[in-house]
Amino acid sequence: MTTTTSLDPAATLATERAAAGPTPTTTVQGAGFVTAALATSRRSILQFFRTPQVLMMGSIQGALFLFMFRYVFGGAIQASLPSGLSYVDFLVPGFLVTVILWSGMSAAAGVAEDGASGVYDRLRSLPIPRSAVTVGRSIADFTLMAWGMLITGVVGLLVGFRSHGSIGRVLLGIVVMLAFGYCFTWVFILIGLVAENAQAAQGMTMLVIPFSFISSANVPVTTMPGWMQSFASNQPVSVAVNAVRSLMQGGPNKVGLEHSTTYWIVATAIWGLVIMAFFGTLSVRRFSKMR
Amino acid sequence: MPPIIEATGLTKHYGDVHALAGLDLVAESGRVTALLGPNGAGKTTFISAVATLLKPDSGTLHVAGVDALRDPKAVRRTIGLAGQYASVEEAMTGLENVEMVARLFGLDKATAKRRSAEVLELLDLTDAGDRLVRTYSGGMRRRLDLGASLVGRPQLLLLDEPTTGLDPRSRMELWEAIRNLVADGTDVLLTTQYLEEADQLARDVVIIDHGKVIASGTPDELKGKAGRDVIEVRPRSGSDLAGISEVLAGVAAEPPRTDDDTQRVSASVDGGADQLATVVRLLDERGLVVDDIGLRRPTLDEVFLALTGQPLDPSPTDPDASADAA
Ligand SMILES: Nc1ncnc2c1ncn2[C@@H]1O[C@H](COP(=O)(O)OP(=O)(O)OP(=O)(O)O)[C@@H](O)[C@H]1O
Ligand SMILES: [Mg+2]
User: Fold this and answer.
1) Is beta strand B212-217 parallel, antiparallel or unpaired with respect to B17-27?
2) In Å, what is the CA distance from B153 to each residue of A30, B160, B261?
3) Which of A182, A253, B202, B252 has the fewest C-beta atoms lying within 10 Å of its C-beta?
4) ∠ CA A48-A54-A59 to the nearest 5 degrees?
């Protein structure tokens, strides 16, 4: 009996292994979706907060632009605002929403970098749901975006911004802004995945800039030529800006909007869901696909 | 026990480039298999296929008995990958990096902590474990990357040029670590551009070029086929190169090669150490002064030359020449 066993190479190997100490687990279980998403998002968040240059730039940039808009353009734009509304009160809600775009630019570069550096190769080789990695990334990008909004909000208060809505409405405004921002992170994740290197990603995000400027974020769209107005008042960023502005400043007529606050919130929700469904699906597919 | 890797007729092309051109390979369990080949041979492409990162255009691939094209998820439960470029996070400490991957391998928090500490110990990184990787040297990053790939104790480790860029000491330490892993029952597939590395670590060596296997066997078998040892001489004065070449021609199995850039003459010899002694005597008799003389193993270049009759980097006219010969 013993002779037959020892002739079996597999059995011999197994005995040798047992003798040699810690044996590899032949099959590894692998992390579940939630663990994997949280672990990978933690990595990207630490990357941001522990790289002083990035942290400083990421935080200062928005504040600087807000400062310039407030004091350089404020005087000129004031004239075209509804009476009783100061430019800083008009600007800050819009600016908070465009933080989504500014922080998204570095998010796309980060995704591209992870793809180029081999980090994603490692993650793709691990026994985890691949979609968890992209969801993890979106959680991280969302966190960094929220940080950017916080900084912008504080700077806004410092340069004279005051809300004229009820606490409840202001909070709802913040929720709308954050939720819409989360949906939008998927746009930048897809850009990062497609670009495959940080510079290309940054170049491609330039395409998003018009959404920031041809919008109601910084100026009332009524000052734009008619053909541009129809784009400027209905594109996703404007719709979200209008919802947030209306919520924070006490209703649509206070901020010169035709439709009701509910209209803008619903429009924001629709845009957000459409964007997330489209870009999220493509991102997850792109990341999970074997090349 | 089935082979840990079994590939037949794998192909993968990028435009006109055939990164894999009908690659057949069997790697047995319980040993290190080294994939040896020059730049662009297809080493990374093959590793990526085994790691389920890419889908071959055709062919079959089984990893630990599992069809990697049908069930890549199951394959991921048996492998650990350390890619060609270290993929550790600079803004996390060494320990945090390994712990993250340990968690992703499915270990609970406590086990992940304990295993990660063990792995750092194994790779001599314990002292640096709490430092941000940003402060690590290239060699430390490579070791950490290896640590991350093995912390989940996968059955098969895939190491793509694990020692590229390491100094000789770190290289030796990494070899030692890999040997220990194999002794503990881990299977290893590694790629390298150095024959010596394959020789040191691997029981089986597979030489690939242009996406195809051109030779395989144990290091000794390959050297038997291909590589005679090489005597290399650097004279004190460049004017002696011709004289030395003459001396070497007398003992060498093939015409000696003179490298004007490095001012060296080298020749493949059959007798190894005996021939070296003869050469030293002959040079002395002729009064040729040398700065350096030595016997070394054949390089990958020389093995290539011997196996294929072509240098590693064929000149554009070579294909025509071989077509004429055929
Ligand atoms: N994504 C890609 N797109 C286009 N060509 C590719 C791609 N990946 C690999 N190749 C090509 O396939 C061939 C094999 O590449 P591979 O990276 O497998 O080589 P390698 O043996 O790992 O080389 P090295 O020693 O330089 O790492 C090369 O000619 C390379 O240019
Ligand atoms: Mg390679």
Assistant:
1) unpaired
2) 11, 18, 47
3) A253
4) 95
Cα–Cα nearest to A127, from A26, A14, A43: A26
Q: Is B73 on the interface with A (CB under 8 A)?
A: yes
Q: How do strand B79-82 and strand B229-235 relate by DSSP bridges?
A: unpaired
Find the radius of gyration of the CA atoms of chain A.
Answer: 25
Beta-strand (E) ranges in chain B? 5-14, 17-27, 32-36, 58-63, 66-67, 79-82, 156-160, 187-192, 204-209, 212-217, 229-235, 257-259, 264-269, 290-296
Q: What is the DSSP string of B34-92?
A: EEE--TTSSHHHHHHHHTTSS--SEEEEEETTEETTT-HHHHHTTEEEE-SS----TTS
Beta bridge partners of B13: B18
- Pairwise CB contact (< 8 Å): A125 & B81: yes
Q: Are B29 and A13 within 8 A, CB to CB?
A: yes
C-alpha angle B11/B16/B18, rounded to 5°? 25
Ligand 1 pocket member B19 (CB < 6 A): yes
Q: How many residues does chain B have?
A: 326
Chain B 74-93, CB below 8 Å of chain A: which residues? 74, 76-87, 89-92
ipTM of the complex in this document:
0.85
CB B187 within 8 A of CB B156: yes
pLDDT digits (tens, 9 = 90+) for B7-52: 999 999 999 999 999 999 999 998 899 999 888 999 999 999 999 9
Rg of chain B taking only CA atoms, in angstroms: 23
Q: What are the residue ranges spanned by the domains of chain A? A: 31-289
pTM as predicted: 0.85
Closest residue (by CA) to atom 24 of ligand 1?
Answer: B39
Structure token pair of residue A79 = 């004239």
Select the residue of B1, B64, B106 nearest A10 (Cβ to Cβ): B1
Q: Give me A94's structure tokens.
A: 């819009």
**Which of B29, B100, B105 is facing A43, going by the closest CB pair?**
B100
Between CA A38 and CA A30 the distance in angstroms is 14
What is the tens place of the pLDDT at every residue in B195-220? 788 888 898 999 999 999 998 988 87
3-state secondary structure of A11: helix
